[in-house]
Each structure stands twice: as structure tokens, then as C-alpha cells.
Amino acid sequence: MSAGDIAATREERRPRGRLDKRQAIMDAGLRVFAREGYERASVDAIAAEAGVAKPTIYNHLGGKENLFREVMLGLARAANAKFLAALESFPSDPSGPAELREQLLAVAPRLVDCYHEPESWARQRLLYAESGRFPDLFPAVLAAGTGQGLEVLAGRLARLANAGHLEIADPVRAAGQFLALLTHELPGLSQLGERPIGDDVLAGVIEAGIDTFLRAFSPRPA
Amino acid sequence: MSAGDIAATREERRPRGRLDKRQAIMDAGLRVFAREGYERASVDAIAAEAGVAKPTIYNHLGGKENLFREVMLGLARAANAKFLAALESFPSDPSGPAELREQLLAVAPRLVDCYHEPESWARQRLLYAESGRFPDLFPAVLAAGTGQGLEVLAGRLARLANAGHLEIADPVRAAGQFLALLTHELPGLSQLGERPIGDDVLAGVIEAGIDTFLRAFSPRPA
Amino acid sequence: MSAGDIAATREERRPRGRLDKRQAIMDAGLRVFAREGYERASVDAIAAEAGVAKPTIYNHLGGKENLFREVMLGLARAANAKFLAALESFPSDPSGPAELREQLLAVAPRLVDCYHEPESWARQRLLYAESGRFPDLFPAVLAAGTGQGLEVLAGRLARLANAGHLEIADPVRAAGQFLALLTHELPGLSQLGERPIGDDVLAGVIEAGIDTFLRAFSPRPA
Amino acid sequence: MSAGDIAATREERRPRGRLDKRQAIMDAGLRVFAREGYERASVDAIAAEAGVAKPTIYNHLGGKENLFREVMLGLARAANAKFLAALESFPSDPSGPAELREQLLAVAPRLVDCYHEPESWARQRLLYAESGRFPDLFPAVLAAGTGQGLEVLAGRLARLANAGHLEIADPVRAAGQFLALLTHELPGLSQLGERPIGDDVLAGVIEAGIDTFLRAFSPRPA
DNA sequence: GATGAATGAGTATTCATTCAT
DNA sequence: CATGAATGAATACTCATTCAT
């Protein structure tokens, strides 16, 4: 989707086949990179999985390094889009603390899901793995991905603070703490995404995170 | 000591004796793995950096895979030791909330340092990068490393709760949240360890984390 | 033919086209295997002798083991063809014992030559050397090579027996004995193919073998 | 045995352990060489199988090449001894053709056994395999082994010819033909020693060989 | 534009041999 | 004398990349 759109804006009048191939290559690249890591992923394997010949990858994407960058940016954009979509209807002017908690309990699983889907683990792991070799990747992925979401979330929290529902000094930092409270157990529980987490376990983690957050940021009686 | 001296007298004439080649190899392995990642790290490079011949690596450690495992477990053990050392004198029976905050402000930088030193970044990144290829690594490293520290920290928090200084339902989870609040900004601020973080910035992060933690877990007035 | 010409025109400019690289590799493989044995033969040496790059060998033949198998089967097929060709015009209905002897003296050197040419020694020695490592090789080479020839020869001897020129109970066994009588001295005389055998010596061996065979299998007077 | 004797003549007054080790190494060498071939046989494996440290092999036998030569010569000598022992009581002045045939039928299996025991196959295969690398090996093994036996057998046949039991022009050649008739099917039947041959099959081969030999070399009626 | 074929560079691993003890 | 430890050299194989079609 997102990668398709991006390509479309660049080459709108191209025959359909070209775009399909580019997208097929990027999809295959993601799968193979996620499965094998950057170094172990062979261009041969990606070409086979994409159903194209090897030189086609070089024609379309210029080589392994650039393909990797494109794949990572695609992942970041997709993750950001999903994160923003999850935030879309949050918050909707809660009447009091109980309703705020309800709204947090409703939105949090969708946010957590952004960190727990396979693409997120792949992005995270490849980012950790290859930041040394691709020093520009981390900032770029942050800018195209999680970074934006964090700021939008900060805005929503600020809105709640302005309405008197929360007491927040630094909304961006609070947003980060909120996400940290929601997600900090995920790596351990899922073994970096290699095992599913039981729904009840996940719900418990989320509820505990929200409660800690609310205890910390609810307005204090004077 | 004596072994070191003996080796030294031997080294003067011919650098072939056995010495602590094993340790030299593991040190070099850590450096090269951290710098290049597992796949890109060549046994040649490790041998060169350790100052030994390549077969010596195979004699002592059996091959690249096992060397990697040993390096990672070594990192985990060292990190655990450092973490436990940081916790040693915490808490020391605070008289009230202000002193508790002081003690937290004192211990937190030492804990955060465990997550921000180069070895920790290397361990983290290699773990993320290679958990697919070494599925047993993540649990093993957790067991030998951070996992223990977390439980010990939980015990300390439980002690504070028993003394009435904190209100904690699930100490292990609270310990995780505490560490998450302290460390969640580190990856972004340091670009996964590739840039130093200013002391003041770090202090701000730590203080914010502690304050959020205290607001969330301080006993409420009845 | 035409392919050869085309390739030639290409070769003039750049030796990279595909041509009969496969055949060149197999020829070089035979030479190097024969010279060095399977283990000592290095793929590097074969590639150099074939005038191709090493990976080309892997592209065309999949690896050292398979190349060896192909070389051996090629040798077996070629030897079989030569053996059958030698037998083609034997026997041609001899009028009596003297003419039968003439015909045997005529065909025998061509048969013996099948056992004394360099390719035969190479095949034999590699087969003996590597039958442990390639247990399926001996039966395969036998089936594609000498085995067939033996049966055809047996048929020709049976024809002579039917015509009353020989007295043969078991033609296949008699064929084997015939070949054994012709060839049993070859390994010793030629030091397993490493030295030429004088023509007169060879002729003596052949004549002695034929005479023994004829004395054993000529019809007895009632 | 034989190898032990030889060593004894060289180092009669050495302590027993030294000879034992040398013999253990040679035994292990034979096993490993036979199993793996010369190139694939590692000195490590031989040392392990002999229960000694690697340098001990170099002390006692000077290296892999020389060990191989010694092993091969030992095999040849042992084979020769066995062959001569088999011939010891042959022939014992037969009264007529029938008794001659009996005596041949009695001695032939013992001779054939010399070609069909595992050590013989090992010797044969290693000789074929490594004659290129050890050009002096084939003549040396022949001289120490089969060559002698052939000449002795020739003498026995000559004795029979002198007594009028056989008609032999060239005894050495006849001896070779005799052995060839007895053994030519062994490689095919046993797949170069990798499969056992049924007793009945072997008896049939032997009988057929003897009968052909006798038909060829029995005195003709004038 | 897509491809089959080819390649130069680089990988982990093993081996025969030799010191120093 | 026997050994544990070390090494230089060599091996099979793989990969990202690029021609020529």
C-alpha cells in the first residue's frame, strides 16, 4: 500500500508491470531480510522469492544496500501510518477519570499492536543489527516512523492536560513514558517477536502500564 | 600474576606460548562482533585482533558460532555483575520520601550506566540481530544477565514497600517499569549507543523517570 | 559447428561467453583428477585448467562431488563405446581354427587397448581409490561401462560356440576369462599405466593369452 | 607380527613400550588409511586411533608419507607370507590328473583368500590410488609382496610340468594366468571388497578357473 | 527491460607439522 | 620420550555484481 503509493507518485504513467515488480521485490526483500538478516540475505534468494531475475533487482533498486534502505523506510512509513490510525479517535473528550481510563484501555492495545506485529519486530531487529553499517538509517527510520507518532501522541496527551484530565509537564516525555510503560515487557515476553503472547498476559501488561501512568499523571487534590 | 610474569619472560623471546589466549580471543571477538556484526565479523579479523593464528581460535573455542555464544554469555555475566554491584547499597532504610528520592537519584545513574555502556549496546544489538539464528541465545542471555538483576531490584522495591515507603502490588512488574522509565529514551538519544549523551540530558531523563515512578508508587494519603 | 563459429567470433573479443564451458570443465576435471586423485585435486586447479572461473564450475556441475561423478560416468561411457566399436566386426564366421585364431589376434589388441589407454588407467585408479567415498560409483561405472562390453563379448563367443568353433559352457564367464588372460599382466608391465609397454611385449602377452584361451575352449576330438 | 619382527631386528634392546607404540601406530595407520584413503586420513585420527599423541607419530615414523610407506610395505610382506604359507604343501606329487585337480581345488581357495581378505583390498586400493603420488611404491610393494609369490607358484607349476602332469612353456606366465583365472571376477563380485561373496559363488569361480586352466595346460594326447 | 551466464573477492574450516615443556 | 598448544598453508564453497544478449 504505502510503498505502492510512493512508487505511484514517482512513476504514474508507467505500465502496471513495472510497479508490480518493484513492489514484489520490496516485499520479497522484507521477508528475506527479516528471516535471515541483512548479511545472510542473498540477492539470489530475494530474486527467487520475488519471482524475478537477479539483474532486475539491480535495475529497479540499484543493489542490495539501497534495497535494504527502501525496505526499512517502507516499514517505517507503514508503521507510522498504522500508529496514527490507531490514535485517530483518541481522545474523545472524556467526562472524567473513569472514562479517560476506558479510552486509554481502548487505544492502548492498538498502539501496542504496532510494536508487536511481525513487521515491527523485523524493523526493530534489523535496525539494531545494521545501525553500525548504515549510520543514517536510524535517524531516517525514526523520522519516517515512530518519531512522528510520538509527537502526535504527545499532542493528544497535552490536549488532555489542557482539559484538566492529566497533569503533565513535558508532554513528549510523558508520551515516551506512556509507551515505555506499555511496551517494556514485550521483548522479554515474546522473545523479540519469536513467540506469541497470550491475550490475557498482554491485557495485564497493558492495564498495569495504564494504571501506573494514570497514578503518576492524574491531577492531585490540592 | 606469576603466570603473567612467566608469560612475559617467554613473550620476550617468542610470542608462541599459550598464555591467556582464550581470553584474548574472546576480547577480540567481542570487539569485532560489536563492530561488524556476527556475519560480517570474519574469523580472520578476530584472529588478527587477538594476535593469534586462526586455528588457535578453533582449538580454544571450537568455531565462530561457539565463540559468539561465549562472548554473549560473557557479556551477560559481566553486565549482571555490574548491575548487582550498583544495587548493593540500595536501599539503606530511608527516613522519608525525600531521602528515598535521594537514594533513587543516587542509584539510578549507576543502573542506567549498565544500559548505556558500550558493552551493553553491543550485547543488545547483537542479541536483537542474531536471535533468529541463535534462538537459544535470548533466553540464555536473559538468564545469565538482566533477568537476575530485575528480580533483585524487585526485591529491593518490595523491601521499600514493606517499610511503607512505596505502594507496590507486583514488585517484579514495578521494577520493570522503573527501569523502563529510566532507560526508554536511551536508544533515541544515543542512536543505539553510537553517540554520547550529555550528562545534563541524562540527568534530566533520570530525574523525570524517578519522579514519574515516585508519583505512581508513593503511598497515597487515606 | 555453427555454434562453434559463433562462439569463436565472440571469443576473439572476450572469453566470457558460455560456449562449451561444461565440456571444458569436464575435460579439465578428468585431467586433474587423473593426475592428483580426487582429494588432492583442487577446484581451483580444475578451474584454472579449464580456463573458467571457479563459480562457473559450481553453476554448471554443482560441486566437486558431482563433477567427479560426471567425469567418471563420461569415462565409462567412452570406454564402453570404444570397446563395442572394437568388437563390431568380430567374429566374421571363421572357416576353421586357424582363421578363428587370426580373428582373435586381430581383435584382441583393440580390446587390450581399451584397458591400456590413459583414460582407462585413470578410470580404474580413481575407481579403486574412491569407491569407499562414493559407494554408488562402482556399480554405476560398471553398468555404463565394462559391464555392457563383457556381455556383448559373451554373445560373440556364444555365436562361435553355436557354430562349433568353441566349446563353452558359460559364455559370460568365458568372456571374463578371455579378458583376464589378455589383460592380467598389464598392471605389472605398465606400473598401473605409468610406463609404456613395448609393442612386442604386448603382442607376446596377447598371443599367450589367446593360445591359452584356445587350448582351453577349442572343441576336443571325440 | 611381521612388522613387529622387522622392528625388533632394528631395535632389539629397546624397552618393550617403544615397539608396542610403533606397532600400534602402524595398525592404526592401516585402519585409517584403508577407511579414508591417504589424503583424507588425518594424522590426528591416526594418533587418536593409536592412542598416542600426534608428535609421537613423527618421532617414531617421521611423518605421514613415511608412515604410509611403512604401512604399505608391511601389508605387502604380510600378504606375501600368507601366500607362501598357502603354497607350502603344494603340490605333493599327484598320482594323476584327478588327484592334481584335487590338489588345485584344495590350494586355490587359500590363494584366492589372499586376494579377498580386507587387507588385500586395502593394499590394492591404496596402491591404485596413490601410485601417482608415490611412484616408487608400486615396484616396492610388488617386490616385497605378490611378485615373490608369483615366482614361487611358477616354480611349483614347473615342477608339475617336469613330472609330466602339465604342459607349460613359460611357467611364470602360466602362474599369472592361473591367478588371473582364479581372481578376475573378485572385483566385480565383491565391489572392490565392500561386499562379501557367497561361499558357493566363490567355489564356482574357483572351480571354473581351475577347469579352464587344466583344459589349457593338461598334456595332450599325441 | 529482463535475463542466463560468468566472475573476483571473500568465507569458515581443516591439516601436517613443529615448538616448548 | 611424550605431549599440549600453536601455526601457515590450503580447501570447498558462496556472494554481490556485471556483461552480452
List the helices and strands and how they pair.
The structure is a homotetramer of 222-residue chains.
Chain A: H1 2-10, H2 16-36, H3 43-50, H4 54-61, H5 64-87, H6 97-116, H7 118-130, H8 137-144, H9 146-162, H10 171-183, H11 186-190, H12 199-217
Chain B binds a DNA duplex (21 and 21 nucleotides) through helix 4.
Describe this structure in words.
Four copies of one chain form a homotetramer. Chain A is an all-alpha fold. The first copy, chain A, has two domains: 1-62, Homeodomain-like (Arc Repressor Mutant, subunit A, Orthogonal Bundle); 66-217, Tetracycline Repressor, domain 2 (Orthogonal Bundle), CATH 1.10.357. Helices cover 74% and strands 0% of the residues of chain A. Chain A has helices at residues 2-10, 16-36, 43-50, 54-61, 64-87, 97-116, 118-130, 137-144, 146-162, 171-183, 186-190, 199-217. The model of chain A is unreliable at 1-16 (pLDDT under 50). The A-B interface holds A 35-40, 124-125, 127-133, 135, 138-139, 142, 170, 173-174, 176-177, 179-181, 184-185, 188, 191-192, 194, 208-209, 212-213, 215-217 and B 35-40, 124-125, 127-133, 135, 138-139, 142, 170, 173-174, 176-177, 179-181, 184-185, 188, 191-192, 194, 208-209, 212-213, 215-217. The structure holds a DNA duplex (21 and 21 nucleotides).
Helix % of chain A is: over 70%
Q: Biggest sheet of chain A: strands, sense, closure?
A: none
**Chain oligomer state:** homotetramer
| Total E-strand runs of chain A | 0
- Please mark out the parts of chain A with pLDDT under 50 across 5 or more consecutive residues, or reply none: 1-16
Tally of helical segments of chain A: 12
Q: Mind telling me the C-alpha Rg of chain A?
A: 20 Å
The shape of chain A, in one word, is: elongated
- Which percent range describes the beta-strand content of chain A? under 5%
Instruction: Give the integer mean of the pLDDT values of chain A.
Output: 89
Biggest interface, chains and residues, is: A-B, 40 and 40 residues
Distance between the termini of chain A: 51 Å
